[in-house]
Amino acid sequence: MKKIGYILLREYLTRVRKKSFLLLTLLLPVLIGLFMVAMIVIATQAQEELRIAVKDESGLFEDKFRGLDQGEKLRFEYLTNNPQPLDTILQHYESAGYDGVLYIPAIDLDRPLGFTYYASSEIGLVTEERIEKAISEEIRKRVLERENYNTDIIDKLDKNIDITKVINNEKQDGSAELAAGFGYACGLLIYLFLIVYGAMVMKSVTEEKTNRIVEVLVTTVKPYELMIGKILGIGAVGLTQFVLWGALTMAVQTFIGILLGDQLAAVQTMQAGNGMADASKSTQIIADISTAFQALDLPRILFSFVFYFIFGYIFYASQFAAIGAAMTDDSDAQSFTFPITIPIIISIVLMSVTLEQPFSAAAYWGSMLPFSSPIIMITRIPFQVPWWEQIVSMLILLVSALAMVYVAAKIYRVGILVQGKKITFKEITKWIFYK
């Protein structure tokens, strides 16, 4: 056990001291924080400060744009009492303190054409959408009135419906979309970890075998101890990276909350006040992020993530280590690693099905089989999977991981010393039963 500890420590320190590890670990949370700051600033501070004159020759939109005013940021002022023609207004609007002129001609409701915005600079996308929406709604209302429809009743019918979910006599809060997004993120992280760090284990084994370093190591360390130490050491690197990412991300978010608390409150107020109906897309994203975690069982998700992270890695890393020991040249890599990577790729495909139907038969069995459970079960957990299903899945993965370590160690002890010989899957199978 002491020798395994030495090997683990060597593999761990060799990798965490690399500049690439430090840069990636430190920069990612900072970049996420900068992205959030940028989104908050865009949502709350980057609005245009515009004063727009409205020349309405149709008479249909009188006072329609007053409801679009946003404090001092965006104001619409009607030129109802201004008899001057449009050409004259366009010559003097800037000297009058306006940033632009919105011209509405005398229109035919069946063919509403000719709306024009005059300015010296391009109008923003959000402001343009608000103006177009206001005009469209007013034309719709006028047409309905002309056809003798009661517009008040139609407005009452035009409502967004929210469904309250009661599962097993318990009211469920939160959004299925947010749960799906969170589950997808967790599943994708484990997928990347299995691929990246599993391949790292295989590369480390093959390098030592090619350089004949392993022949020296096995004189003092048993092959089994060498394999376990290598797997645990590289796994500890990955776990350290994720723990640091989590801690740094929380620290960055706390700092952002202190620094931009007023802006975040403004975003949440906007969401509560108007249902985000007229807010920009960036504001909607920030509001969703600020409320995403409230309905999630974060302690359970965190515990589950760490468990499936560790034992899913052990299950696959032991296979990569065994294949790395059996390889005699790089040309064998594709044929040997293909059977290992296929279940991981299938799990990613199955994950999309799981997000749509988290309690389907495919999702259930995918979360039980050890080849796919590290990805599929962590994807399902935000949807409040019954505890008994998760416990059964964890026990199957735990036993399977230990069994895979045993099988991989049998292959590793023989394959690590084989040089210059073409290895087949049939021969690898024989190694498993050597005594």
List keywords for this structure.
435 residues, alpha/beta, D-Maltodextrin-Binding Protein, domain 2, 2 domains, four-stranded mixed sheet, 6% strand
Describe the structure.
This protein is of the alpha/beta class and 435 residues long. The strands form two sheets. It has a four-stranded mixed sheet with strand order 2-1-3-4, covered by helices on one side. The protein has a two-stranded antiparallel sheet with strand order 5-6. The chain folds into two domains: 50-157, D-Maltodextrin-Binding Protein, domain 2 (3-Layer(aba) Sandwich), CATH 3.40.190; 174-244 and 296-432, no CATH class. The chain is elongated, with a radius of gyration of 31 Å. It is 66% helix and 6% strand. Helix 1 (2-16) crosses helix 8. The chain has helices at 2-16, 19-44, 86-92, 125-146, 151-157, 176-210, 213-217, 223-259, 261-274, 281-291, 298-326, 333-356, 361-368, 373-380, 387-415, 425-432; strands spanning 50-56, 74-78, 100-104, 116-119, 165-167, 170-172.
Q: What's the rounded overall pLDDT mean?
A: 76
Class from helix and strand fractions: alpha/beta
- Head-to-tail CA distance between termini: 22 Å
Helical percentage: 55-70%
| Uncertain stretches of 5 or more adjacent residues | 270-283
Number of helices: 16
Oligomer: single chain
Using only CA atoms, what is the Rg? 31 Å
H and E string: HHEEHEEHHEEHHHHHHHHHHH
Number of strands: 6
Query: What is the 3D shape?
Result: elongated
Structural domains: how many: 2
- Proportion of beta-strand residues: 5-15%
Largest sheet: 4 strands, mixed
**Largest beta sheet: strand ordering:** 2-1-3-4
